[in-house]
Amino acid sequence: MADEHHEDHGNTLAGWFLTLSWIVVWTAAALMIMLIDQDVVLWSTVALGLSIVCAAVAGIMKKVGLGRRHPRPTPLTREEWEAQRSGADAGTAASDEAEEADAQSHASEEASGEKAAAR
């Protein structure tokens, strides 16, 4: 259920907007605390409020179509990975056998061609 409510913006315009806006907001709040006014609670509250507004804007951007359009890819389970791996190993073994057969037939063709040239 937590995944259903998670805002996954991905590597999209909405995601970059959210990332960069939070960097700007929290950097500005830190500078305000250090340079202008040392009221940490005030500027942290302002930064938190602006962060929430930026998150809402990023959510709207996502709904408009500037976010992830496809579901997030999920990693393979161990069973799926092992099945895929064993299939790849079987495919590799089959291709190795095919290459050996090709090499043997090529060698036999060369040998027969040498015999024909020697006659």
From TrEMBL:
Residues 107-119 have a biased composition (Basic and acidic residues). The keyword Iron does not apply. Keywords: Membrane, Transmembrane, Transmembrane helix. It comes from Streptomonospora arabica. Residues 86-95 have a biased composition (Low complexity). This is HGxxPAAW family protein. The keyword Zinc does not apply. The chain crosses the membrane at residues 12-36, 42-61.
